[in-house]
From TrEMBL:
Cited function: Contributes to the regulation of the Wnt signaling pathway. Down-regulates CTNNB1-mediated transcriptional activation of target genes. May be involved in neuron differentiation.
GO CC entries: growth cone; perinuclear region of cytoplasm
Positions of region (Disordered): 330-367
Identification of the protein by name: Protein NDRG2
Gene: NDRG2
The protein's assembly and partners: Interacts with CTNNB1.
SUPFAM superfamilies, A to Z: alpha/beta-Hydrolases
Compartmental location: Cell projection, Growth cone; Cytoplasm, Perinuclear region
């Protein structure tokens, strides 16, 4: 970035703005500064926000949001959660907004060719090159989980781990398309996206959370842009994962889905196609379609275990639910003699304790 005409051009294309995120602060905590950047890529401009500073020999946490949301509405409840503060103090974070999804984004002109999900994945190297970050741990939801998976397939050496929430790795089949078209005749785009984000039971209960997100999607000033992202998601290609085959995720993966969530079957199928020694499957009870919004505490704890399994945050303070596991985790680590690449957890709704099991099995978390 220091020399050459292309470097100067890249700098000229970059816009940077200093902001401070509004969020409740913990006792003794100071506001966390954030820098928002926009950088040009072969497929248009992309905006991303960076929190913290790079840590030596540590990857960046890199998030990508779902359709109908932006990075704040998708991830703020998770990253503002009290126990998450220990994690974010140990990693620099990069939150990407898909093109046209950032706050205040202008509506794209009529006929604008929105990037495919594959092209959104191809924008990520431009972000990492500008930031001079070599590796990431990705956290993606829905369409964002697909984008990060596609990027990991194309650039496996730069992805140390993935937390994939509500991933559907399959292209839509003919039956899916027919159902989608029929739904489109009677439902608005906003209603279809809400049905993608939340279960029908959640939408029927119409809780305060649902009312909030229904308002966010229905009254979004960039709804035309959101529809373009939605169309790209519905036109996604099959990731073609194959257990034991050449096309698979090479890094540790934690798959997450809510019990009875819209994408439960897709995530279960995805789990069956990935390497069981590298993959953990977390099915969260009573969390609905968006566990990062409804159960940030339990998801935070699972992410801590995932990071510890990768060899990070070994001295992390355990939450009240997991203190009982500290001794068993320590002894297991000494027996293995190496970084564990897969962790299976289950939480009993009666005892509130966590226990481990053989790799590749399901992590059941109940409220």
């Amino acid at each position: 970035m220091e020399n050459g005409g292309s470097s100067r051009a890249t700098m000229a294309e970059l816009q940077e703005v200093q902001i401070t995120e509004e969020k409740p602060l913990l006792p003794g905590q100071t506001p966390e500064a954030a820098k928002t950047h926009s950088v040009e890529t072969p497929y248009g401009s992309v905006t991303f926000t960076v929190y913290g500073t790079p840590k030596p020999k540590r990857p960046a946490i890199f998030t990508y949001h779902d359709v109908g949301l932006n990075y704040k509405s998708c991830f703020q409840p998770l990253f503002q959660f009290g126990d998450m503060q220990e994690i974010i103090q140990n990693f620099v974070r990069v939150h990407v907004d898909a093109p046209g999804m950032e706050e205040g984004a202008p509506v794209f002109p009529l006929g604008y060719q929105y990037p495919s999900l594959d092209q959104l994945a191809d924008m990520i190297p431009c972000i990492l090159q500008y930031l001079n970050f070599s590796t990431i741990i990705g956290i993606g939801v829905g369409a964002g989980a697909y984008v990060l998976s596609r990027y990991a397939l194309n650039h496996p050496d730069t992805v140390e781990g993935l937390v994939l929430i509500n991933i559907d790795p399959n292209a839509k089949g003919w039956m899916d398309w027919a159902a989608h078209k029929l739904t489109g005749l009677t439902s608005s785009v906003a209603e279809m996206i809400l049905g993608h984000l939340f279960s029908q039971e959640e939408l029927s209960r119409n809780s305060e959370l649902i009312q909030k997100y229904r308002n966010i999607v229905t009254h979004a000033p960039n709804l035309e842009n959101i529809e373009l992202y939605w169309n790209s998601y519905n036109n996604r290609r099959d990731l073609n994962f194959e257990r034991g085959g050449d096309i698979t995720l090479k890094c540790p993966v934690m798959l997450v889905v809510g019990d009875q969530a819209p994408h439960e079957d897709a995530v279960v199928e995805c789990n069956s196609k990935l390497d069981p020694t590298q993959t953990s499957f977390l099915k969260m009870a009573d969390s609905g379609g968006q566990p990062q919004l409804t159960q940030p505490g339990k998801l935070t704890e699972a992410i801590k275990y995932f990071l510890q399994g990768m060899g990070y945050m070994a001295s992390s303070c355990m939450t009240r639910l997991s203190r009982s596991r500290t001794a068993s985790l320590t002894s297991a680590a000494s027996i293995d003699g190496s970084r564990s690449r897969s962790r299976t957890l289950s939480q009993s709704s009666e005892s509130g304790t966590l226990s481990s099991g053989p790799p590749g099995h399901t992590m059941e978390v109940s409220c």
